[in-house]
Design a protein that fits this description.
The chain contains 17 helices and 9 strands. The chain is of the alpha/beta class. Strands 1, 2, 3, 4, 5, 6, 7, 8 and 9 form a 9-stranded mixed β-sheet that branches.
Amino acid sequence: MRRNKWIPFLSMMLILMLSAACSSNSGGNNESAATDKPAANTETKQPATDKPKENVTLKFFTGKVETVDLINELIAKFEADNPGIKVEQEYQKDASNVIKVKFASGDVPDITTVYAQDYVDQGKYLDLSNEPFWSRVLPAIKELNTDIKTGKQFRVATNVTMAGIFYNKKVFEELGLKEAHTWEEFKSNLQAIKDQKPDMTPMFLAGKDSWTLGHLIEFMAHGVIKQKYGVADARAAFINNESDKLQFDAAGGGIDAFAGRLMELKEAGLINKDALTATYDNQKEAFVNGQSALFSQGMWVLGDLLNMKPDMADTIGFAPFPAIADGTEPVTLSAEDSVYAITAESKHPEEAKKFLEFLFQPENLKAYSEFLKSPPAFTDVNADWGPLKDQAAAALEAGVNIAFTDTPSGFSGDDAGRMVQELLAGKYKDSQEFASAYKEAWDKAWNATNK
């Protein structure tokens, strides 16, 4: 079994973020229209070929709820510096499916955070390979943003993110619990919390927001495949639907094991009873209020937790996802975060690039990283991104590092999450039936876009 090659790099990167000097070289372009020739007349005429410069409106489409308010603040700053350009941000909870409608209807945004391999294959994104900002991006993040088929970059990530298990350190210390690396240890911890703290939910699921359940599939179930083949080979397997490697419907495989483990937790009463109706906000509130002991999320949640309860910084623990299948190891997501792409159909690509260049200025990336509590992916940004640096580094060492899943555009994380909703609702008689249905849904979506 191969360990992910990003472990030493990301550990080094975390140290680098603490010591790197922040160097800002935003460089403006100030052009003068002055001339040293005296005017022949007091009244000059504009050449017939010159037209007044039109105002441009850029459409920015995002599915990243945590940063909507901050991006609006940055948009206001950008518009003040660029009076001829207006940026309209649109957030949609189910952005990965909404963008399909936008592409089909012609209501195409100029810039988007939604990225899928199918859309790359269809030529939906502008090639950003030759943009000057790449010299400032961490090499491993650039590689993760490189299209595996063409070797080009159609997106850029501003940050590095991790995902794993967030837990209440005080509860763990009180009960004498340790971070779990095996499924038996994980379930035992939850059972101890249930037995000794009956008023506390051991593990909280935000099932109403399907993307949170889709992440369980992406990190835990797909984690079995990703750790077996490594980042590059696993990405190729998902993109090309290599069924001999994916084995979605295999007995004891990642999907089957995940479904069985989740049902174990439900039957033992180790997850919240309202798992199907609880929201992402409910999940955060339950944790900061001491009503739940742990939950699965990414570093993107940290900023919200600390805004809700600033004095909780020393209480939050972070650990890898436990191994769910026999013979596997725990995993930690370690990947690109906050990606931006310009659509090929944009009527204002130069203005869109200008907006991205603004977002990528060191001072703006510093503010973004510190707000989101996520390490920057740009080498010239020194951000104090949060209190979990040491625990994040430990999680990277303890678990195999995995990347996000390249899913077919017709089977997004939201779609996978809806299948997990059905699993929790009792639609499938057992984990094997769920695994078979998952493979069928994946294959159907992949075949629809790879005819």
